[in-house]
């Protein structure tokens, strides 16, 4: 890295450099972060948080070397290790290349956004000799994919989400399943949110007394982050191999004035209704009984079919 890197806030996925290469093109780079399955869930849901301690002090520890990321967390079994692929806006970078460097723990308070340990620089505290970075502000680090997992655990991860609809449509969804919207901000799919308050506002033009919020289990699969207006994959994420499009909260998109989180699931089979999160009292009991009605009706049909 050079001592100063221009950061213009670019939001493309990033350039992957070799561990010892100098930065090129706008200061946005592809990097990796190794974590546990449990922490991966939290990062996907809430974003990164700073480590309070570490070799380079506070920050998010990442690397351009995927093999290094795969060795973390160090004390976790390989079956509990996940590697995120990241897009990192490095900003102003400080090279730390010797033991007891005067800015080893104070680079951030001296105006730098990222500390960089180049590979094979001879630091005794980095016996592996592998490249390492520490990014002070978690907002500079975005998850763009799963680079490595011991099994499909994360990609098949099930999340609790919510869907706002009318009493009439809630009946239909519970008995017959979801029907994808043919159009919308993210194209065809079922629109859901992890934010219950957002779901409670839908349908937007409907009287609140006719609104129902369904609690869902969603297998998100492969997720594409859509975080800016006119994103190149805003309508084509599914044709590019993704199962879910995700608009993170407060990402600044004009199309999401509320700033609340939103998801679009292409395949309705990935969504299961597990409860009624909110409903008018007059309809709640009826809706809660519907799954049993559907179950017994299905059993009756099977019984009659066997008798034929």
From TrEMBL:
Database matches in Pfam families: PARP
What GO MF terms are annotated?
NAD+ poly-ADP-ribosyltransferase activity
InterPro entries found in the cross-reference section: Poly(ADP-ribose)pol_cat_dom
PARP catalytic domain residues are 156-234
Provide GO CC annotations from the record.
cytoplasm
Family indicated by similarity:
Belongs to the ARTD/PARP family.
Name this polypeptide is given: Grass carp reovirus (GCRV)-induced gene 2p
Organism per entry? Oryzias sinensis
